[in-house]
Design brief:
With about 90 residues, this protein is α+β, with helices and mostly antiparallel strands. The protein contains three helices and four strands. It has a four-stranded antiparallel β-sheet. A hairpin with a 2-residue loop joins strand 3 and strand 4. Helix 1 packs across helix 2. The longest helix is centred in the last third of the chain and has 17 residues. It is globular, with a radius of gyration of 13 Å. The chain starts with 5 loop residues before the first helix and ends with a strand.
Amino acid sequence: YPKSLKLFMASFTTALLDHGENVRPFADGPMLRAVPRDAVRDVFIEGHPADNAETRSRAFLRSAARAVEARELMSGEVNGRAMLWQP
């Protein structure tokens, strides 16, 4: 992963192991393993070195957007919750 995504992807992996769920994000698609976005955020915020909570929160949003743009992860709403999963 690019340096800018290392903490985010590590946070995703940890959250997936601890809070992952089997979901079907698309009606005609396969069942897959996904994690609530909030669970990834909690792990990311805990591991981010910034002192300021707002700085950590903005870093999470930037990293999440980069991961989706780079197609490392997909994001969507599943059963009313924001979820992340690997394509």
